[in-house]
Specification:
homodimer, about 450 residues, alpha+beta, 7-stranded mixed beta sheet, 5-stranded mixed beta sheet, about 30% helix
């Protein structure tokens, strides 16, 4: 499926349907007809996204000496975005159709399928009368203050607050080059055609690193960060062979960038970008030093040099990565035998990403001792991980419900646990593995360390 | 200090200064003069806030069977906020001064100190000419869509997306009353007078629970949630005796609320609200059922009744709680002896809230073996907690730098560790306790479990 045009809409529909049915993702404002391009994460989606963000933070900030975290405001001053070039420069070329009054991205007219207005696809109908392309700003604006006199923008990327606080972080943390500042947070763009589920939305979350370095290290560090980020994706369950690395050629990169890699994933709707790793030179600090009139140079105490650091930016889309995790995990397995068809739907998340780490069942709801032990196990595990307790229906059906949301392990308290079948099995439970469906028995007191070693 | 008017501006100034100096909190857009009422969390502030949010999520969602999480969009449809009453009803009474053109909250004119325009305090100067109070809407609006034709608001509270998705969560999760939906996220209000540091800001984060129940259980569950929330504050280091509970009397509550408690904390700038626990009856689901024209009733399978659940809402301010943690932790201790003054500044965070859990030092930077062991300890602990490595300056000064940011434990690799002084001490390190400044020795291999038992 390395061809960009190969898509699998049937698979995509199944994933979207499962996400709604099991509470991963709902459309925002659905009760009122829906807010186009905005999504709410339901209980399981919120946990999946938390797992992704926590893992990124752990690997990027906690486990590294050279990266510090921050968490900046969404509301952004006009001056910041003037300096950064977003006011004036952050726009898409758009064309208007004089016939249907619609507005469309000029750069995607050919592939555009107008589902809402099927009678007037832009350019496709002889009735269409398209204007020349015009720039259309992608930022969302708001006003505040007592008389609404102050303008602010919803940040179009988390990066700018990092550049603006770079000096404060430097001064308060005694760090030396190279060092990075990392941030996870919401950004907003007025996408004209939000599409492909949560892939392209108006409100989205980013996981960005601005890694400051000496100018001569920029190109080397860009390659190193590319490798670091590819390892990250493999660790969360997105294998290297499903990723495509674009080395953006001269002339197609942003004018200030000396190197840009796009990391793309094979989504069911085509190969699309997950992350960009860009060597942005000293462009950002330069424009903010100029715009603010304040010096942003770094003083190297060893070489006694004063200079603007260069920056490498690995910038990942959080919602896109959630979607990649969902797409990669989704599987339908044919289990039928004797001519009967039986399809098992299973989300093969890595245990570290799975919204629920373990489910605990008493074999029989009416067996008080089984229920008591199952509840005890649940309580013992709950401070450490997400546990789901279920006593409804046959155990086989309970397994299947957990398969569908990707729970890697199910524990069943049964008659063996009570020692009623075989005294040697007393105090053990059945551990059932999601992927292989194999079962083994483990003593209750070994469950916590056994699970902790597997789900983190 | 139980008197609301008792304040300690000197203490508050010291806390603000420490937060800037050590990288807890910076003003948003400071490089360009600052965006009033918006704040960026620096490296340590981001960790402190993460610890608070993670602990809240763990206690509220992960460790409870009856509460599910969600994570909704900030952009909110106009229809949602019309139903909720925010459009039309969510406003402050304001007066304008015809002399200085300023706008002020009518309900706080008496206590208002006009620092920006000291010559014209509203009502205080004979020059002032104030208008009658007028309603001023507190929501931030934005426009999007191809022609900017669609209106959306930045949510003024996270609660509304919970109410709007209540049915989807119910349908996708097979839950029974009583159950709750919890959410952490940003909200926005056009505060006219943002003040008291991060206490009242235009962009803020909330930690909200909507707990749905049978009507006859509402009052009892309100009292239970109040108790649960008070325990939570004690667990994170805000003791019960610093909290004040206001039982809002009839006539002062929102018209739909049958019971409302405010939980207030003794900030250095006065006693102010941290959280509200409100019994909101079926008001919210009622207005959304009516506004959307869709049924939101719950069907009780046991009693065969169909009814709108009532709701209890414990709604906490995340930034306010961060501020309370900072204020509660800040301490200056007089350590001088022999007539010399020596003041130790120490942030007495609970270990679970501390941004850095443990610092690791080699006694001597030039001792390669000490450095090697210190780095090994750091690497072994880092996957589990925030670790800070420091080899600069005298150990005493390193301790003090950690005290100032609230690191509960410092580990020093010294000559005893190498077995050079006493063979019995080989392989042990000095553990220094922040609060008591006492020291003990622990074997390196016991450090991880010893710390894990204390910092979570």
């Amino acid at each position: 499926m390395a061809n960009k045009d190969v898509t699998d809409p049937v698979r995509m529909e199944k994933i979207v349907s499962l996400c709604k049915r099991r509470g991963f993702i709902f459309q925002a404002g659905e009760l009122y007809g829906g807010l186009n391009g905005c999504w709410d994460y339901g209980p399981l989606g919120a946990e999946l996204k938390r797992n992704l963000k926590d893992y990124w933070w752990r690997k990027t900030v906690q486990e590294r000496d050279d990266v510090l975290g921050m968490d900046g405001a969404i509301l952004t001053m006009e001056e910041v975005l003037k300096s950064s070039g977003h006011i004036g420069g952050f726009s898409d070329p758009m064309v208007d159709c004089k016939t249907c009054k619609g507005r469309f991205r000029a750069d995607s007219l050919e592939s555009f399928e107008c589902k809402e207005k099927p009678s007037v696809c832009p350019g496709a109908s002889p009735k269409c009368e398209l204007t020349e392309p015009r720039d259309f700003n992608l930022m969302l604006q708001t006003n505040f203050g007592a008389t609404g006199e102050q303008i602010a923008y919803l940040r179009p990327e988390t990066a700018q607050s990092i550049f603006c606080q770079y000096k404060n972080v430097l001064d308060s943390n005694r760090v030396k080059l190279p060092f990075g500042i990392a941030q996870i947070g919401k950004s907003f763009r007025n996408e004209i055609n939000p599409r492909n589920y949560i892939f392209r939305s108006r409100e989205f979350e980013q996981m960005e690193i601005e890694y400051f370095c000496r100018p001569e290290d920029g190109l080397r560090l860009t390659d190193e960060w590319l490798e670091t980020r590819l390892c990250f994706y493999a660790e969360i369950g997105i294998p290297r062979e499903k990723l495509h690395i674009l080395d953006i050629p001269d002339g197609e990169r942003a004018f200030y960038s000396q190197k840009t890699y796009d990391i793309e994933y094979e989504f069911p709707f085509g190969i699309q970008e997950l992350e960009g790793v860009a060597y942005r030179t000293d462009y950002d600090l330069g424009v903010h030093a100029k715009g603010s009139g304040r010096p942003l140079e770094y003083f190297d105490e060893e070489t006694k040099e004063r200079f603007l650091p260069h920056v490498v930016e690995p910038s990942a889309g959080c919602d896109r990565t959630v979607l990649a995790l969902l797409c990669e995990a989704f599987d339908e397995e044919e289990l039928g035998s004797d001519g009967k068809s039986d399809i098992r739907t299973v989300m093969r998340f890595m245990p570290s990403m799975a919204p629920i780490k373990v489910a605990v069942f008493p074999l029989l709801k009416k067996n008080e001792e089984q229920v008591r032990i199952a509840r005890e196990i649940q309580k013992a595990l709950q401070p450490w991980m997400n546990v789901f307790y279920d006593d409804g229906g046959a155990v086989g059906r309970r397994y299947r419900r957990q398969d569908e949301v990707g729970t890697p392990f199910c524990l069943t308290v049964d008659f063996e646990t009570l020692g009623e079948e075989d005294p040697a099995l007393k105090g053990t439970v059945t551990v059932r593995h999601r992927d292989s469906m194999e079962q083994e028995r483990l003593p209750v007191e070994e469950l916590l360390p056994w699970l902790l070693a597997r789900v983190r």
